[in-house]
Design a protein that fits this description.
Length: 421
């Protein structure tokens, strides 16, 4: 028989986004197994399966808004069941400190993580990623969540248990890529502590940043551009833009200049081929930018930035930034970037090392511009200087090419007429 699974009564919430799809077509699920997770501004909720069966179709995608009665999954099964799932279980945004986990069985000093162990484990994708990061076999972890689901705290307890029970003199367990994990510390011995739940954005971005940092040989090239004349023009444009409901920031000009520099130095707009012997040259220019939100940084992308002028880029920057702060970005808004810019100019700093957003091969960091004395050949004159921090994957880009890219970029920013070429 066919079972249509719909979103149950989730209180006063409507049009809440699907944040995670926990199953795939062809998966066999048991009754009460979670199918999707939705997230409102107050809680994260799981929609469980009303019956055992095989997933025939998935009717929603991550980012889709759903409400009570929205069809999410079609199951194939023999058992009769109601077409609506039971009320989803809500996890408050500020969860209480979890109860101590059940005692864990001691694990070998260096357990082997197996795909079969992961496939059988009852855990969310973020928990699976956390376990892989620590090189822990989920099949050996006891879950204390609903229906035996493995929680992040269960993995932490398992790690503490295995570390505490390792015989003296044994070598420490290795983390991912053979790196010893940081030992767990009971900070409560030294003073009052509390567990503060990380935002979902940080939970997702953390493993991705860690993966990029471990896999990419990062190098950062620092330079500065003279934006004195450009900033005068930008302020004139911004004054006119205010009357039309948008703003013109320096980032709009940097995006435009970056596209021109990427065209001249295409390696920065590429990705490494999976075989490691080639670069994939991209003939399109989607510029990602790090947007600061109350829950952490997200990276929406200006698509086809080479076909847009300063005004259009400025309006799109404002629109995507507003959506980011409101938590309304969709998957397509944050995918497909070929080069990323991270700007801390509104906060401060002189330079930093931004982490390359793999599979991209480079990222540009901006900090606060400042007036500085610059020698013009006859005298020192005050000029507005913009620091540039370019991090790159040394497998795809060498130091000389990085220096040339920055020279091209600062030349474009130093003469706004060249941005119109």
């Amino acid at each position: 028989m066919t079972i249509e699974v719909k979103v149950p009564d989730i209180g006063d919430f409507s049009d809440v986004p699907v944040v995670t799809i926990l199953v795939s077509v062809g998966d066999v699920v048991s009754e009460e197994d979670p199918l999707i997770e939705v997230e409102s501004d107050k809680a994260t909720m799981e929609v469980p399966s009303p019956a055992a069966g095989k997933v025939a179709e998935i009717k929603v995608a991550e980012g889709d808004p759903v409400s009570e009665g929205t069809l999410i999954v079609i199951l194939e099964g023999d058992a009769a069941a109601s077409t609506d799932a039971p009320v989803a279980e809500a996890a408050p945004a500020a969860a209480a400190t979890p109860a101590p986990a059940a005692p864990q069985a001691a694990a070998p000093a260096a357990a082997t993580v197996t795909d079969s162990g992961f496939s059988k484990a009852h855990a969310s994708p973020s928990v699976r990623a956390f376990a892989r990061q620590l090189d822990i076999d989920l099949s050996k972890v006891n879950g204390t969540g609903r229906k035996g689901r493995i929680l992040r705290e269960d993995i932490t307890s398992f790690l503490k248990s295995s570390t505490a029970t390792r015989p003296a003199g044994d070598p420490p367990a290795q983390g991912g890529m053979g790196i010893p994990p940081i030992p767990a510390v009971d900070f409560s011995k030294f003073g009052p502590v509390e567990d503060v739940e990380m935002s979902r954005i940080k939970k997702i971005s953390g493993p991705a940043l860690h993966r990029s940092w471990l896999n990419i040989p990062h190098v950062t090239h620092n330079d500065e551009a003279d934006i004195t004349d450009l900033d005068k023009y930008r302020k004139e444009m911004d004054t006119m833009a205010k009357d039309n409901g948008y703003r013109v920031t320096l980032l709009s000009f940097v995006i435009k200049a970056s596209v021109s520099a990427l065209k001249e130095h295409w390696e920065f707009n590429s990705s490494l081929h999976p075989d490691g012997d080639k670069l994939i040259k991209k003939n399109y220019y989607n510029i990602g930018f790090a947007a600061d939100t109350p829950n952490g940084l997200v990276v929406p992308a200006i698509k086809d930035a080479d076909r847009k002028g300063i005004v259009e880029i400025s309006k799109e920057l404002m629109d995507l930034s507003s959506k980011a702060r409101a938590g309304e970005l969709k998957g397509p808004d944050m995918s497909g970037a070929t080069f990323t810019i991270s700007s801390l100019g509104g906060i401060g700093g002189t330079s930093f090392t931004p982490i390359v957003n793999a599979p991209e091969v480079a990222i540009l960091g901006l900090t606060r511009s400042k007036m500085a004395p610059v020698w013009n050949g006859e005298e020192f004159v005050p000029r507005l200087m913009q620091p540039l921090s370019l991090s790159y994957d040394h497998r795809a880009v060498d130091g000389a090419l990085a220096a040339r890219f920055c020279v091209t970029l600062k030349t474009l920013l130093g003469d706004m007429r060249k941005l119109m070429w």
